[in-house]
Amino acid sequence: QKILEKYHNLFALHWEGVVGNTCAPSQAEWEQLLTKCSAFLFYGMERFMSHVLLNWLVAMNIPKCHLVILLDLVRSQQSYQRITNSDTHKSCLGIALERPTETAMLLSLTGVGSIIATQWYTSLEENAERLETLFENLLSFGKTTGQTIHVLQK
């Protein structure tokens, strides 16, 4: 929340979405957010694709979304229990398609221009640092996504 407030004035038009942990967005809300945005940020627990339906995502066409930032792959005991329960109802192939590389490929096939995503499990604090670096470089300094990724890699 602090990072969003800090960079709020640098957003081109407006910021819309779901903030907090009081409720999870429905599939219709995910679809509305992804199809209306030019950039999409997911900062949350476990795999992004564990929150959306695979069949729903692959059927989408979202070419207006130029950038997706996935700061996911954070695990807590509660999120691990949720994902374990959810995974019991999925095929091995379905679970495999939720991995970072496969998620990036699926988003690319739906029309997303660029995808920035974590590749291994991390902490909320580390993702907060990544978000701060992303916003600082993309919004404050006006760097490209490629230049920003190089900063994150250092």
From TrEMBL:
Superkingdom of the source species: Eukaryota
GO BP of this protein: axoneme assembly; cilium movement involved in cell motility
InterPro entries found in the cross-reference section: CFAP46
Protein name (record): CFA46 protein
